[in-house]
User: Fold Ribose 1,5-bisphosphate isomerase from Halomicrobium mukohataei.
Amino acid sequence: MDEPPLHPRVETVAEDIETMETRGAATIADAAASALVTQAAESRAETPAAFRGEIRAAARTLLDTRPTAVSLPNALRYVLQRMDGESVAALRASVERAGSSFRDQLDRAQDDLGEIGANRLRDGDRVMTHCHSTDAVACIEHAVQQGKAISAVVKETRPRKQGHITARELRELGVPVTLIVDSAARRSLGDVDHVLVGADAIAADGSVVNKIGTSGLAVNARERGTPVMVAAQTIKLHPDTMTGHTVDIEMRDESEVIAPEDRAEIGEITVENPAFDVTPPRHVDAIVTERGQFPPESVVTLMRELFGEGTREPWAE
Amino acid sequence: MDEPPLHPRVETVAEDIETMETRGAATIADAAASALVTQAAESRAETPAAFRGEIRAAARTLLDTRPTAVSLPNALRYVLQRMDGESVAALRASVERAGSSFRDQLDRAQDDLGEIGANRLRDGDRVMTHCHSTDAVACIEHAVQQGKAISAVVKETRPRKQGHITARELRELGVPVTLIVDSAARRSLGDVDHVLVGADAIAADGSVVNKIGTSGLAVNARERGTPVMVAAQTIKLHPDTMTGHTVDIEMRDESEVIAPEDRAEIGEITVENPAFDVTPPRHVDAIVTERGQFPPESVVTLMRELFGEGTREPWAE
Amino acid sequence: MDEPPLHPRVETVAEDIETMETRGAATIADAAASALVTQAAESRAETPAAFRGEIRAAARTLLDTRPTAVSLPNALRYVLQRMDGESVAALRASVERAGSSFRDQLDRAQDDLGEIGANRLRDGDRVMTHCHSTDAVACIEHAVQQGKAISAVVKETRPRKQGHITARELRELGVPVTLIVDSAARRSLGDVDHVLVGADAIAADGSVVNKIGTSGLAVNARERGTPVMVAAQTIKLHPDTMTGHTVDIEMRDESEVIAPEDRAEIGEITVENPAFDVTPPRHVDAIVTERGQFPPESVVTLMRELFGEGTREPWAE
Amino acid sequence: MDEPPLHPRVETVAEDIETMETRGAATIADAAASALVTQAAESRAETPAAFRGEIRAAARTLLDTRPTAVSLPNALRYVLQRMDGESVAALRASVERAGSSFRDQLDRAQDDLGEIGANRLRDGDRVMTHCHSTDAVACIEHAVQQGKAISAVVKETRPRKQGHITARELRELGVPVTLIVDSAARRSLGDVDHVLVGADAIAADGSVVNKIGTSGLAVNARERGTPVMVAAQTIKLHPDTMTGHTVDIEMRDESEVIAPEDRAEIGEITVENPAFDVTPPRHVDAIVTERGQFPPESVVTLMRELFGEGTREPWAE
Amino acid sequence: MDEPPLHPRVETVAEDIETMETRGAATIADAAASALVTQAAESRAETPAAFRGEIRAAARTLLDTRPTAVSLPNALRYVLQRMDGESVAALRASVERAGSSFRDQLDRAQDDLGEIGANRLRDGDRVMTHCHSTDAVACIEHAVQQGKAISAVVKETRPRKQGHITARELRELGVPVTLIVDSAARRSLGDVDHVLVGADAIAADGSVVNKIGTSGLAVNARERGTPVMVAAQTIKLHPDTMTGHTVDIEMRDESEVIAPEDRAEIGEITVENPAFDVTPPRHVDAIVTERGQFPPESVVTLMRELFGEGTREPWAE
Amino acid sequence: MDEPPLHPRVETVAEDIETMETRGAATIADAAASALVTQAAESRAETPAAFRGEIRAAARTLLDTRPTAVSLPNALRYVLQRMDGESVAALRASVERAGSSFRDQLDRAQDDLGEIGANRLRDGDRVMTHCHSTDAVACIEHAVQQGKAISAVVKETRPRKQGHITARELRELGVPVTLIVDSAARRSLGDVDHVLVGADAIAADGSVVNKIGTSGLAVNARERGTPVMVAAQTIKLHPDTMTGHTVDIEMRDESEVIAPEDRAEIGEITVENPAFDVTPPRHVDAIVTERGQFPPESVVTLMRELFGEGTREPWAE
Assistant:
């Protein structure tokens, strides 16, 4: 069967994503939704079936560029999930509405999320962070804007020490920062009111995929009675996990862990450098999204609402 | 009251300890016990009271050199605890016997401990280590000598990365080593049969003072069902804790955590660099000493047996 | 901008709520819903926008009377959430329908809830209560009506001893009652089949705000293997918490805790008398509402269904 | 009031279910849905009310045959829940659509579920099973079809040793099987990547009713850090539990536990042979259905979506 | 067989204990030890056997006065356990030595204990107390004397509100006090560094018998990560429990729980007023005695050392 | 070097143990102790060294017969541990004394243990048993003799169903018995006051080696709040574990698990039939021995007291 005709802008957007001209989870998602809207607006399809076929084909083209990034399929799922109507006009309108709504929400998502997360923080609270997450920083930023005094214990987050970025951004907000090595976390947990982290992906079983070290921190936080709060926009939800798929953990370059010269001195060893780990929902108290906060066990409901049931791929021919 | 006359060797030993000419927990303990034996052998005391006074004074002199090292008072306690007799001759003999017995045991302690620890390991076991401990390495070494195939997951142990030393020593024993950052520990715990660490001090309430990060690791090990084994010679027992004293946690230089130039870039922050943390006994499965293995909750019994009840300082005038 | 014209009944209802002429969570909610229905029925608005504006203004007026009571905004949210239509007539009908449905459900909520809660209890069960909750008592009452023999261990619930009220109501139902001080709860938990409490508010993260002492009881119940059941009508759900807001804990008068003369005798002390505490969802087995029972982690879904997403206030201009 | 006229096929189907001519959860559900469709298709009702009355009466007739089987009321609930329309024609169409959709989904449910469950398993994983569940076996079967090497530890599952059936079916799939007695489970849990069981029913509070021994296994799995996965089609969801009803645990014949001659030798004893037990949601990691996987705490949402709120019986007159 | 002749002072002491002229755990223990010493000093026994018989008879006479107080048999056990020698003179000396040593230790026990307990407290610590215990207050008093700033959260301890006594004594020491009802404990546990309680008895299995409410507090403290410290002189150790005996829990007068007039208003209810409960060792971090601190699991060793193996009663004929 | 001359009775005893003429842990231990006494009594050694050599040689001969039974080396350790003196006469007397004391204690051990265990049980208690242990039954027997009403839930204990033996013996004592399959244990744990099991060996780290299924039962008992009590005479203590040795778990015949014909039908499978498993001390509340009850964490102290430090084998040349 012939592929339906695609609007050139779809192909440009796809190319820009593929060549990483377009980068960043939110930027990619926005571009993808916008491309679908263009395809809908400019479509010359004459039958609803043809129109649907075009939109799905556009989605597949976009998806093929970066099959593992989660924000890209989420943008596509969101729009296709809402494509509905008996006529081409109705279908077109529904795609335009969905695309526009997705982009609007995306645009203010971090701001909304920050406000919600900030509401969980009280004046005088002390927060422990792991790695660097703009969503997590947004929560603290909004709390500061609400006039709350917040201080932070920042874990350096080996191997890449993204804690330094967090520290700098919090300093720019005027937040007092105490920097510690990752191993010193348990010792400080008793003096801390919240553990606050971001997420790379959230799975349908409620588990949180985030920077290596998150799960060990969460286990210790539970043992010390400190609540754990995950700040993650809904584009981090991972609909594939609804069908049981597990999130692949990227293994990063070994040289991040040990310099070649130090390694040579030690002798022949294996170095493992997993980028992420998985925190089960029972060690997380709340997931803060721009749509509100949720216990991790109920995020699947939000995931189904936003992105469909997930047992069928909406772009399948 | 006049201080009793001390043998010059006591003063030499004291000076060598003070100037750090004599270094290392075991070496210091050995020198101190040996100095007491010399004092006893060469004493010119004519009454039991005078003899006792001399030995106590020698102990005080030695103790004053390094009041915080735990092996030093342990050597003194061990010998003074066993000073007994109705005559100078009997007292002298008891001190010589105790000093000699202490030094003999010290001499073979790591070997005995290694053998005992090795017995807990089975052929094919995989061990996770934190920091570097010669006692812990001795357990693996003996297991290898027993013909067991042992492999190791070595945590790098920020900030000073003593894990590199452990890795090198294990490689020299032919043990396959996988190096990870500290944050990656929980992810590997499911594939590991034992967590094996050393100790800086063991307290009367059964808690283990060891390199920062040990307690967080132990909490995660318990949560994953992995047993935790602490290898520590009895000179690491901390008799002061019998009277409720807590072990001071050394705060080390901040530059170990972050280079001054990186710090300058971030802005004004606090850096905390605690050297140790405290693992409660409920997260430890066994403490392996040269005297046998013990549940952490029963180590106080061994402490009392070796070093006395602890509610009185044996060197008090 | 001018405020839209409000029906006098809205103002009367508002005044009655403000002066506490109208009292009690359910009574207030009922009055508020009824006032919105009146406003809708009698509205002279000529455009959908004007009509919507009037209803929102009425809601704001009502809300201003008691900004902290949760049942009041819930009634308003429920109705406004369902205001829908392209014409004034359609909008009016939708408000009337929603108001009527809300009031009908409210009217039979405790009865429905009691039936559902009673179904969890088996013949011969022994129940432990804390404080006094008409929803919790309704569960026992229905169980008794179902012909089940139920007995109760009633915690007195210092400082105000509302346990005495519970005891009296249960006696009136013929339920055998054992009264204990709050501290005796753990000792009895092994002989008890359920802990059954009410709630002052239920948060979006699944935590239960209830009379001080509930959370400590729930932790002990979990440790003893006794299930914890919370009986709470849906007007106790707290939609503000969807946006991360925490529930303020009222601090009550110190004289409830200690008589002034006893206090004078002791000397200068601080007295803290928090009215409520927060039980995390992991210590609660089921929340029983008139809409069915829910694990605490999924109550947010019900909250969104009944009261909207919560990230926007439906009465905002 | 007269009962509405029922189509003869409804009565035939009812009879076949009653006489156990029609057996098996899925077969019964399919027959019941099909009977409702026939009733709708052939109805001679002239008013919507009459039509609704007929369908409800047909449902009651079917329900009366086996009031305790959960798949039967689920089929009826699913269809009646979707009966909607202002005219007889619209109502008829809605019943036909719902019946057809229910049967289609049922037809491919185990296959879909198996695919989803298989996605949770990784190449090389070792799975522990309890009892025999075709849903659980389907997960392993699909994993094998995905090319993954899976091995299994099969608990024999006293008293009826359904583990032998599981073992045989897994052998037919080429899966290496290790058979153990039930008591040996904890010893193997450290070497196992998943516990995988089926379910007889899933309750609204997230608890899982399954073969006796499941809950004890799940508690041990949690303690050893091994995730627990329950495979259950949505016809196993138990809507009655939404209204607090508990699932009756069948007590089976004592001779399954002990042969009469052995019993005679022991003397007068009681024998208890419960068929099932109840696993609380906190000991289960995921429930895998044909609609996707869910944390047990969120299954109630799916239950409400498929079968209605549950506080009203849809077949009530 | 004739009872051996007892010294009149033994009988006077016995009578004074029986008539409660002599009261208080320590005072009784002191009197009993002193009576044994008198009996030994004044004995006219001519054979070792006769002497032993006399001392045992004296012990039995003393014991009969208050069979349930634990300090009385402990005094007797301590002395009889140390009665040793081949001649009457040697036996007499051993009893005198043991009696004198027991009394000396008793005399300074609370002081020693206070010092040890104080060492566990750091400057700035906040302590939560339950009931009133002079041993617990002694720990805080010594900490204050050591120059540490200590503050306290004092639970009122229904039904008898001994927390008021604790509050007053702490105020006299200058310690800032916050008084709360018992149910408010969990809410404050996050801000508290230690839970500090006394004990009525300590059992050989490591469990702590103390004022009702202690066990529930300890469970919550563990859940919040707050360490629990029990201050108890060794006369609170309960040697009978070495042979499995359980400690009877006194049920106190019901009017302590509810005033008769309030009760009459409620109707016919049962009131349970247990004086104590039992905290298992896993919820206690340290037991502080005058002999040092111990994990609860190792107290049995101290019990055997002080009071003998316990499987034989030393006063048995 | 020549082996010292052994008394013929030593060789007879050794042979009887080797040929299993002498069987049963207690009988073997008794025979071994008795043989050492004979060797001592009849020794013609003229020097202390020769005498010691003879006794050690006798011990080695006895030990060689059954190197894995734990009661045999315990008898030898007990006696050799107490061999002490400067002359042959003194040494002989010490061996005779130790041998006699060991045998006396052994003779009444089960009775003493039963009494102690019975003291932990209250009138009306319900006890759950696993496997068959004469020590555990002795506890119930003594409780019955104390006039307490005790009932029992007896797990059948696959694969060999020793629960049937327990059931029969308890019936003979008049104890009401409920028999269940092993998997039904968790369901009954809420109605049970104690789990009571025996032990095959107790290790120095406090873990309990007992019939397969014990550890899983103990984990569930802890989760349900039911205390676990282990009844084990001190000959079950395993001194080798003081030096880290682990207890080998016997793998028994596969035909105990599945009949060959059933197995043939299934196809090629592995069958694992471990006889024992290991319960960590944190899941056990008390170990009841004839010397008193102990928390599992303190049993090592008793082990050292009875059998020596264990780091040296007392029979080593």
